[in-house]
Amino acid sequence: MLSSASPMSVTRSSLEEMLDMLRRQDEAEKPEDLPPALPARPLSKARLPSPRQLSLPVNFEVDNANDNNPMNTNSQPVSASGCEVIPEDSTGKDKESSNSRRNFGGKKMEEDLNLDSPYVIGIEERKEVIKSLASTVESSGFTPCLTSRIREREWEDNIGYFIKKKLSVWCHLVSGEWVSGTILSTKGEEARVLLSNGNTKEVPTGELLPANPDILEGVEDLLQLSYLNDPSILHNLKCRYSHDMIYSMAGPLLIAINPYKDVKTLGQDITPSFRLKVTGRSHICAVANTSYNEMMRDDVNQSIIISGESGSGKTETAKIAMQCLVASGGGNTAGIEDRILQTSCILEAFGNSKTSKNDNSSRFGKFIEILFSTSGKICGAKVQTFLLEKSRIVQLAKGERSYHIFYQLCAGATPSLKETLNLKLGHEYNYLKESGCLIINGVDDEKRFHLLLDALDVVGIRHQDQEGLFAMVAAILWLGNIRFQVIDGENHVDVVADEALTTAASLMGCKAEDLILALSTRKISVGKDSISKKLTAQQASNTRDALAQFIYSSLFDWLVDQINNSLDVGQQFTGRSINILDIYGFESLKNNSFEQFCINYASERLQQHFYRHLFKLEQEDYEMDGIDWTRVDFKDNQKCINLIEKKPLGILSLLDEESSMPKATDMTFAHKLKQQLDTHPCFKGEKDGAFRLYHYAGEVLYDTNGFLDKNRDPVFADLINFLSSCCCQLPQLFASRILSKSPKAGSPLYLSGSNDFQNRSIAANLKHQLFLLLHHIETTRPHFILCIKPNNKQLPGLFEKDLVLQQLRCCEVQEVVRISRLGYPTRMPHQEFAERYGFLLSDANMAKDPLSKSVAILRQFNILPEMYRVGYTKLYLRNGQVASLEDERKRFLQGIIRVQKFLRGCKVRNHFHEFKNGVTALQSFVRGEIARKKFEDLKKMGRISAPGNSMKAPLEEIVYIQSVIRGWMARKQLDNSFKLKKLCSEKPEIKSSNRMSGLMDIAKEPAQVLPTPLIELQSRILKAEAAIEHKHEENAELTEKLREFQTKWSDYEARMKSMEEVWQKQMAALQMSLAAARTNAIPEDYNAITPRRFNATTSPRDYDSEDATSMGSRTPIAIGSTPMKFSASIPHRRAARDNTNGTLSTVNDLIKEFELRKQTFDEDARSLGQDGHRPSEISPQSFNPDEELRKLKASFDSWKKDYKVRLREARVKLHKLGYSESDRRRKWWGKMR
């Protein structure tokens, strides 16, 4: 919704005119087959490229008086739209400063240039660059004034559209909170908005911002948002955070929000399979994979820079990045990956502690350089640390803890180790119980100590060194328990000889008397003599604390050296590396001292590096390379950095100056700061020696108490000499490092406990280390990760909008997204682009200059003109354009490799065959020569040793052997002839197998010379025996078949018997059914009169089943059983008998048919069941028992079905006659009465 307008000069530069002239000359001399010329460039508002050839970019600003720091009380106000507003009553100086912003012809350019910068190689080279730029601008004929983008609001014109479409907007309430709503109506400058909570509120239209549609809620990359503003960015991050999606992209920047809990997307166990699952860009592994792939592809070292406030999760982010890199480049050297990962556990134990804002705060800066071989495998690493906070060892704030190792050692040491070190519980040591905090919720110090022991073993630190390491840690704890007692009126003290003194002396390997002298006295050199001076209580306490701090800082440096020795790369390093920077997070505590000042200064420097790469160099490249670009403003922190480090009136310079003065105090230092820097917009002097600085992340109030002593970091020669006299190895090593750098024995040494440079204060040493670090990082390709702290209570799921928004604004996330959206993140020099993709061109007659090649490549692959820009020296591409080129390049290279594979295979095979033929020929020649040589040797031996009768004896021996053999063969032949005759004369009952075996034995005998008839006879016998053997085999087969048929027939008999039994039962059931039907059909009196008419018996009364019991269970009715009176009723029954004659005839027919069928089926079944018999009507050729049985069964089933139907019909007829059993019974008994 914003528009920009800037004046553009129509005057063309001399360089552009020269390019046009060269283009016209090329067109005149160009052959007809060359590609068309490039289109004319648009007039550029950019400055011309400078003649610098430095490896590091030059960092300078035209007007340092201009500052957009958010905490600058003197800075200009900013409107809601983001435009800078210059008040009418501003001074002329402010107006001039505002108008001359970034004016390369400004008079203050050289004056305000910060020459004390990590990006400057030399002052003279800087001046030459500035002079060259000035002359180039003058010769160009126009002034390329790069004004800020004028942001004009068009929101008023679109309010009607939002009302009509009922689109959501963000409403900025008086409380400062952004709430979503819908515009109902507008009236002048006021708008009536329906909020999401249902309330209606009237707000100014200037307090409304457009909201993104619901479909864009929780997008992975902020570049996808339609409307880019603070509430939209904040709402998108909150939506993702509520679903445990803690990673989001802001262009090239990865945003990681601390979840304060275990989240699956963190990837605690990073494996190659897990890395393949990470398909999106918003993950730490995606950043690590990108850096690794770019290192292998472009052969450029990479850096992963992790920034954020204290407690935002930088340490965990660095560990996950290391795991991802190890998963990418692991597998080369055995154990090197595990050693690299275990360094985090060791450094956390000795360098992290609990603060008021973070339970695992890094109290040192860490820079890990992971080294790779040519094949992309990890071959080593280097660890560099910065400014360990030593004051935390002896002084703690309420609710904080010292370094984790002290608590882990007290909680997790084995009984034997506790006995050796005389360890006690943590609350018994003064250095630990001062803060009143000994444990961390949810943290098991005992378990962490065992993990530390495993890590030390993996890294390769010997057990002897581990014992010395823990002895020094325990000695520091016991030093804190040493007490002093006043011995005179001048407050001089002596050391109390107690358990703490003796244990500390024993652990350091010295006598208790030596430790007493080192802590309570100090030697002062007077000429060639020295005088011992007693110390006061405060001096003795400071000496004890200084000794403890020096031992721990030296121990930490020694531990880092041991880690580097274990990760030594050797000869495999080829210059490829990926660096991970995890440095201090910005801190603002209740009491901020020298440590917080150094930490925040390092954060300012790192933030400036962030601004430099994402804002300054990005836009400078566009302008210097002739790209039409509208500058995006951002709030630079260069003024705060200049305030701290600029000479001679910077805070660091004044601090070093006061530290070098013996009589200087913290109050004199604070007074000097207020006197010299009170007019600076980023500084404000306070009362009681305090001062306030306006950093990029907010203002911080510092207390100067202790600034000078902490900056000096005094270590006296008495303590160094004491440590050198100890028996233990580590104290002697610590002292030797200091003595090797001491300028003079016996004088107080103001040295840095962890730096090689003499007489350099802590602040100066930190500045020097930061400059070296930035110089190193500047030679690499950076990847930025911004860690966000969602709340100050360290609770999961709590998202404090104001806190998150403040961190986003401090890092200019919105401006980063805007530059990424408008810019061209992929840029390559024309020469490099042409070399990488030039072979893909199909036109062989193309011009050979890199610029023409670059344009031809873009045209060939149909890349749209709005997706790239052609600069003077580089080609600029938008996101995703290189991917298609890389895919095509990969496919083309794979085809080339495939062709080369076949050609090389063919070549190698031809070479192999030629080599094989040559070897064979050579072997034949050699073997022939050897054979000829042997033959000549034998020939010579034969000529020399053979007399005239020398061959007679061998010939006689040969003849004798032949005669013996021939006689044996003749006897053998005779024996064989006798055997044949004997076999021929034997009886035929002899088994052929025996004859065959004998003949086979004869055949197996050695070949003999036999007569021809005998040979013929032998062959005939062999044939006969073979025929007999064949017959025997056939007989065996037939016997086996016969046995099978017999088995089958037995099965048939069994089946027939079972079927016969079933049929018998079914026949009996049918007979019972017939008998029942007959009984029902004939009256009882009729049965009594004519009993002989029926041969069958009646079934019991009320029987109505077809499948009843057997026939034997039925009892026939006796003739004489009928009563006499029943005979008198015969005349009355005649009529009924006549009516039943038809039905009775039907029943009789059924009985006769049943008997006939039964007899037929019985005969057929018996004939099939008899062995070897068959029915007479079936021929022997077609007789098949199975088939006949099946036919018989089918015939029986068919008849049975038909018979049942007819039987039912007869029963129905009987019932129709009305002769039921009950009626007959009543009539019969009635007649009897």
Automatic annotation (TrEMBL):
* Keyword Oxidoreductase attributed: no
**Residue ranges the record marks as coiled coil:** 1014-1055
Residue intervals of the Myosin N-terminal SH3-like domain = 164-213
Q: Which residues bind ATP?
A: G308, E309, S310, G311, S312, G313, K314, T315
GO biological process: any one?
Answer: actin filament-based movement
- UniProt cross-references to Gene3D superfamilies, sorted A to Z: 1.10.10.820, 1.20.5.190, 1.20.58.530, 6.20.240.20, Kinesin motor domain, Myosin VI head, motor domain, U50 subdomain
Task: Give an example GO molecular function.
Answer: calmodulin binding
Which family does the UniProt entry place this protein in? Belongs to the TRAFAC class myosin-kinesin ATPase superfamily. Myosin family.
Q: What is this protein called?
A: Myosin-2
